[in-house]
Amino acid sequence: MTFKSALITGASAGLGGEYARQLAAAGIDLILVARRLDRLEALAGELRAKNGIEVEVVQADLVTDEGIGRVEAAITAHPALDLLVNNAGYGGKSGFARGEVSDHIDMVRVHVDATVRLTRAALPGMIDRGRGAVINVASMAAFSPFSGAMYSGTKAFLTMFSVNLQGELRSKGIVVQALCPGMTHTEFHEVAAIDKSIVPAPFWMTADRVVRISLRRLGRGVVCIPGWYNRAIAFLMRCPATAGLVRAAGRSGAVRKKAGDKN
Description:
Helices cover about 50% and strands about 15% of the residues. It is of the alpha/beta class. It has one domain (about 5-260): NAD(P)-binding Rossmann-like Domain (Rossmann fold, 3-Layer(aba) Sandwich). Helix 1 (about 15-25) packs across helix 7, helix 3 runs parallel beside helix 4 and helix 4 packs parallel to helix 5 (about 150-170). The N and C termini lie far apart (about 45 Å).
C-alpha cells in the first residue's frame, strides 16, 4: 500500500523510530508523537534533511487526557492522514498484586485508551476517502501466560480489537493490522528491567526487520507475527495440546524471575 501521510505514536525510539525512518524513506509526510521533545526534534530534523519530507512534531504524554486530546486534535487538523501507527507502549516492572493501581491504570491509558481514541479520530477521514490503514503494535505477549497480567491483557485487547475492527471496516477500504513481535532489539527491555538472556540470541529480531515485515504484510491478514519461530511459539501457546506445558513452564520461578516478575 502507498500512503501520503502517517502519524506515529511512541516515535522517539524503538519500533516507532524505525517506522518513521522507513516511511520517510518512501516519501511519506509524518506526524511524530512522543513524550521526549528533544528526541522527536532530532529525529524530525534527520528525516527532513535526508528525505525532503514534511515532519510535524507533537509532544504528548498519552497517560494523560490532555496528551491524548492533543494528538486527537493533530489528527483532526490533518484530514488527509491515511496511516495511523499506534506504537506507544511500555512494559510493567512489577506483578499485578504488588504493583500500584495507578501504574496499572496508566498502562491501560497508553495501550488501550489512546489506541481507541486515536483510531476513532482517524477513521472518519479514511472512510470518506475509502482508503487508509491502522497498525496497532501489540506483542507476542498477547498469547502468553507469563508476560504479566496487565501487559499481556492490554496487548491481547489490541490484537482482538484489531481483528474485530477489520471485520467492521473491510467493506470501507480500511486495512487494520495487529503487529505482534517477539523479542526485538530496542530499549524496551532495559526500561522494563527484563533480563534479555532468557531468550537465546537466534530468537531476537532487529527493529528494522520487524517494521519491514509489518509494512510488507499490511493488508495480508490482520495479525502479523514476524519470524517463523515466533509464529511457532504463538501456535504452541494457543494449541490445546501444548498450552498446558507452556503454562507450566511459565509458572517456574526461574522464568518469572528472568521475565521481571517482582511478585
